[in-house]
Amino acid sequence: MRRGTNLLAVGGFNQAVILDLIRRAPQGLSRVEIAGATGLSAQTVSNVSRRLIDSGIVLEAGKLNVGPGKPRTLLQLEPTGLYSIGVHLDPTVITYVLLDLAGDVVTDHRAPLPANATPDSIIREMAERIAAILEDSVVPHDRVLGVGIAAPGPVDAALGILLDPPLLDGWTRVPLREALADATGFPVVLEKDVAAAAVAEIWTGGGGERDNFAFFYYGTGIGMGLVIDRDVLRGSSNNAGDMGHIRVAPTGPLCSCGRRGCIGELVVPHRLVAEAVETGIIAEGPPASSVDDDFSRFSDVAADGSAGAIAILDRTAAHIAAAVVVITNLLDVDRVIFGGPFWQRVSARVLPTIAELVNADPALISPHPIEVSDSAIGEDVAAIGAGCLVLDHFLSPRPSALLISE
Ligand SMILES: [Zn+2]
After folding, report:
1. What is the CATH architecture of 207-376?
2. What are phi and psi of 363, to 5 degrees?
3. Membrane-crossing residues (predicted)?
4. Which pLDDT score, from 0 to 100, does residue 131 have?
5. 313: CA distance to ligand 1 center in Å?
6. Nearest of 208, 251, 211, 157 to residue 332 by alpha carbon
7. Domain 7-77 has what CATH class?
8. Structural domain boundaries of the chain?
9. pLDDT grade, residue 397 (50/70/90)?
């Protein structure tokens, strides 16, 4: 995040602790309970609660009678008190979501990434779109905590720069965080797309069963979001999750690394489309057709029962399963969640095959079965994760959250 102070910086750590407690208690909490749970003095809880109520972030919701004496007033989160915006820059499509303070999607919007447009013009377009979304939703600017943007890696997270994402031509060393902050006037957080997707799963998933999982991201490219002990694994430069060079076939198309059989070349949507066109399963698209459109035609043909298309999907499932075994062995995760902009179109055929192959693989070390599932969040998962990241900075009581503004 950069630029300006925000409510958290003013409110400090105690406020974040209290807000976090209230957020996790949808039925409401009394001031006495908050003081008991946090160890903060009654006076501090009272002062912070008053400030949160005055700011419209928390509301008083009914009374609780606990034996003799005055009934206690319950405090609840006011979801419409604050908002965040999540943006996902995929090489073919830009997704926008407006989230309320509870992390629920108020509205979303998708627009194709214009071919040959410069980063500058796309960043300007993002700012215009964000302004339009806020206007349409009647959300004032001072109620927006910031913008989270998810982008393909590699990124320089410290500087907020996209380094040289392989599928985004012309986006070499683009200072995306600063440029978007300047264009929108909001603080901006930049996160690699796969990590953002994992954040969304943590936020909306809840419950202990999601302590350790991998998120297989299926977009224009592929990647893995990794969550270990409920924390997103980011690595030394925030670029963890690149699994594209795991070799899963002895032959295959030539990869940028000079080898053949790398999963990042074998299973991506444009490769499946190319194979289907080469073998006559689908006709070549019109000259300006997007991977998105071509992939939809391919998945429609597969859904209609084309044996050739189904064979391509079965090979894809086998390749993904082989890589999933390597990753689950390495990290001892017990669950792999699949999602991303292209996933839903092929999941019905591919997911059950992956589940079967992974758990039957003699190379699987895990003493527990690997659970395989679709993301419940849908195609907006990375954008929602980026928006959740902004809320997370604001709501999570951890010392690093205090460094929110630079
Ligand atoms: Zn490779």
Report:
1. 2-Layer Sandwich (3.30)
2. -85, -5
3. none
4. 97
5. 21
6. 211
7. mainly alpha
8. 7-77, 81-199+382-403, 207-376
9. low
Cα 237 to averaged position of ligand 1 atoms, centre (Å): 21
Contact (CB, 8 A) for 170 and 146: no
Q: Which residues surround ligand 1, an ion (CB under 5 A)?
A: 245, 255, 257, 262
Rounded distance from Cα 238 to ligand 1 centre (Å): 21
- Given a contact cutoff of 8 angstroms between Cβ atoms, the answer to whether 356 and 320 are in contact is no
CATH for 81-199+382-403 (2.60.120.10, 3.30.1330.10, 3.30.420.40, 2.40.50.140): 3.30.420.40
pLDDT tens digits, residue range 116-129? 889 999 999 999 99
pLDDT grade, residue 377 (50/70/90)?
Answer: confident
Domain pair 7-77 / 81-199+382-403, same fold: no
CB 158 within 8 A of CB 118: no
Decide: 353 and 390 in contact? Cβ < 8 Å.
no
pLDDT digits (tens, 9 = 90+) for 14-30: 888 898 889 888 889 99
pLDDT in tens, 362-376: 999 988 899 999 998
